[in-house]
Amino acid sequence: ADPGGEGAEQALGAEGERAAKAFLQAKGYRILRENYSTPLGEIDLIAREGEVVVFIEVKARTSGEFGPPQSSVTLTKQRQIVKVAGLFLEREELAESACRFDVVAVTFGGKRGRPEILLIRDAFCAGGSAVF
Prior knowledge:
5 strands, 5-stranded mixed β-sheet, alpha+beta, 35% strand, globular
């Protein structure tokens, strides 16, 4: 097995999503879907915060060596998330609902073995303009 290969990356991603989910639930988010997958792409977490439907991209890293995790949410990725979100809203008949796009950046390898978690609310808009 390749220690830095795809399997390790997937394990890190899954671990990051677990940490993000627990963090968001503690903040009052109600998780609706995990790893919502369509032919257009995938959204890591879909939740409700009050009346707002929140589409959440989780990015996990083991260090800040290559920049903060959220820096990897490119414009292309944002556009893909927006398309998948549109499909979800249509399928669930939530087209009239308020929605937003959050990014949760999870960095492992911090103090006391606990991940550092940064929630970026309204990280980008449906037009796809990054705020990082």
